[in-house]
Amino acid sequence: MTAAVPGRDLDLVLARIHLRTGSLGLARAELEALAGAGSLDDDGLADLAEARWRTGDLAGAGDAAQAHLAAGGETLVALVVAAEATAALGRPGEARGLAGRALERVDRPIDSVFAGMPRSPIWPTDRAVDDGVDDPDDDFAASAETVATPGATPAYAPPVPTRDHASTGADIALAAGREAVATGDLAAAAIQLAVALRLSPLLASAVLEAAATHRSPGLDLVRGDALSALGHEAEARRAWSEAASAARD
């Protein structure tokens, strides 16, 4: 799980949580709404690039990645997406330059970075560059959801925590979320409850109960996630819509 960055807008933090936990469609919808409102920061542009890429929109992903790089960003996922999009435009020399910059930032085989996504021939096979630096941007590869044809075998499967570990982490996050609600820290509450739900969907009812006591865009978003986990899709969509409307306001 990617840690929240102090000072980032709550909607950007929650969109990244959804992206990292595999809710690609929801993450993209949130990021597209933020982009339309002009609310994306540099890291948000990189997240939008990844969300578009992993949902099959390489051209749109390339635009977001190039915007991130033009703003001075240098995250791994933006470099990978920019390289792929540039290669698709028939500019292999420029694409290889971007690929080289990406390889300087990755310390694992490049196959694990793509996590099952199609890749162009600009990349070396099974090459890893280890510069001894622990780059937090690399964590997207460990949580990416494969976008592939039905029946295809993913090239990468993220490790699944044991039930005891997952349950313990979920219970801790749920307790922290309830405490944050009680103290009025609704931003922290939304993050903790979202984490609890992602670690253990069986806690959906408890998360819904905790999120229902107060209203905020973040809690509305979590409430929608909990309703969806319980199978109430129509109510979930209404909650997500309320979250988006409140964020715009």
As a percent range, the share of strand residues is under 5%
SS-derived structural category:
mainly alpha
DSSP strand count: 0
The CATH class of the largest domain: Mainly Alpha
CATH architecture of the largest domain: Alpha Horseshoe
Can you give me a brief rundown of this structure?
The chain is mainly alpha-helical and 249 residues long. It has twelve helices and no strands. The protein folds into two domains: 22-140, Serine Threonine Protein Phosphatase 5, Tetratricopeptide repeat, CATH 1.25.40; 163-248.
Could you walk me through the main structural features you see in this protein, from its secondary elements to its overall organization?
- It is elongated, with a radius of gyration of 19 Å.
- With 249 residues, it is mainly α.
- The protein has 12 helices and no strands.
- The chain has helices at 10-20, 24-36, 42-54, 58-70, 76-88, 92-103, 110-114, 163-183, 186-199, 204-211, 217-229, 233-248.
- It folds into 2 domains: 22-140, Serine Threonine Protein Phosphatase 5, Tetratricopeptide repeat; 163-248.
Give the arrangement of secondary structure elements.
Blueprint: H1 10-20, H2 24-36, H3 42-54, H4 58-70, H5 76-88, H6 92-103, H7 110-114, H8 163-183, H9 186-199, H10 204-211, H11 217-229, H12 233-248
